[in-house]
């Protein structure tokens, strides 16, 4: 395989990811079954795409999905400063939103996006992430549904990149140090 010299170890295989995603989808189905508001999954581009694509297959409810693309303001360390590169096409007033992430790291992205979605009139916002890296948390923001917790390692695959590479790997692996240092 083209990537095998770059990957130090596989953390989660495709089978493990699908199995865990199915469990989360079933849990979400149970939790939202009696909600009366329309439901929208919001994927943050680009990393969330493979996870969102798998997750929607396991949510047995009337659910829509849409995408946003946001970027932290370069050169600032301040919390909560993001630029919206692509906004939602859906008007979300009164919607129950599930924000879909590939990874929650410092937590700054979800903290700010949740605030933005509530400001736009969402009835509720919860967060579902494939990976959680709690050791890196800076913001006071946490996911409601978590696939797997990971150590502070450089992970790629299943949507996650280094320099736009490796997003297409069907598994999650740790990149060799020499590939990104
Ligand atoms: C990654 C990831 C999250 C964010 C998490 O996105 O997809 O959105 O960083 O980091 P935080 O918790 O420290 O805010 P990135 O900006 O790399 O874009 P991508 O999804 O296009 O890879």
In short:
The protein is an alpha/beta fold.
CA-based gyration radius: 16 Å
End-to-end Cα distance, whole Å, is: 22 Å
How much of the sequence is in beta strands?
Answer: 25-35%
Number of helices: 4
Domain module tally: 1
Mean pLDDT reading: 94
State the CATH class. Answer: Alpha Beta
User: Mind describing the biggest β-sheet?
Assistant: 6 strands, mixed
> What is the approximate shape?
globular
Low-pLDDT regions: none
User: What is the N-to-C succession of helices and strands?
Assistant: EHEHEEEHEEEEH
For the secondary structure, the number of strands is 9
Give the strand order of the largest sheet, numbering strands 1, 2, ... along the chain: 4-3-2-5-6-7
Ligands in the structure? 1-O-pyrophosphono-5-O-phosphono-alpha-D-ribofuranose
Describe the structure.
The chain has one domain (14-154): Rossmann fold (3-Layer(aba) Sandwich), CATH 3.40.50. It starts with 6 loop residues before the first strand and ends with a helix. By secondary structure, it is α/β, with parallel strands linked by helices. Helix 3 links the parallel strand 5 and strand 6 (124-132). The model has no long low-confidence stretch (mean pLDDT 94). It is globular and about 50 Å long. The longest helix is centred in the N-terminal third of the chain and has 19 residues, at 14-32. It is built from 4 helices and 9 strands, in the order E-H-E-H-E-E-E-H-E-E-E-E-H. Bound molecules: 1-O-pyrophosphono-5-O-phosphono-alpha-D-ribofuranose.
């Amino acid at each position: 395989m083209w990537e095998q010299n770059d990957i130090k170890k596989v953390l989660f295989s495709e089978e493990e990811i699908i199995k865990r995603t199915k469990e989360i989808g079933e849990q979400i189905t149970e939790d939202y079954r009696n909600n009366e508001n329309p439901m929208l999954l919001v994927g943050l581009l680009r990393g969330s795409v493979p996870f969102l694509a798998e997750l929607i297959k396991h949510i047995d409810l009337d659910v829509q999905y849409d995408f946003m693309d946001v970027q932290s303001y370069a050169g600032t360390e301040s919390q909560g400063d993001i630029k919206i590169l692509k906004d939602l096409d859906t008007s979300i007033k009164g919607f129950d939103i599930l924000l879909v992430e590939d990874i929650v790291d410092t937590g700054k992205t979800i903290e700010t996006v949740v605030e933005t979605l509530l400001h736009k009139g969402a009835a509720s916002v919860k967060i579902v992430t494939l990976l959680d890296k709690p050791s890196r948390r800076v913001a006071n923001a946490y996911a409601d549904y978590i696939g797997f917790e990971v150590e502070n390692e450089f992970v790629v695959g299943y949507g996650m990149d280094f320099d736009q590479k490796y997003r297409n790997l069907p598994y999650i692996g740790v990149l060799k140090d020499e590939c990104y240092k």
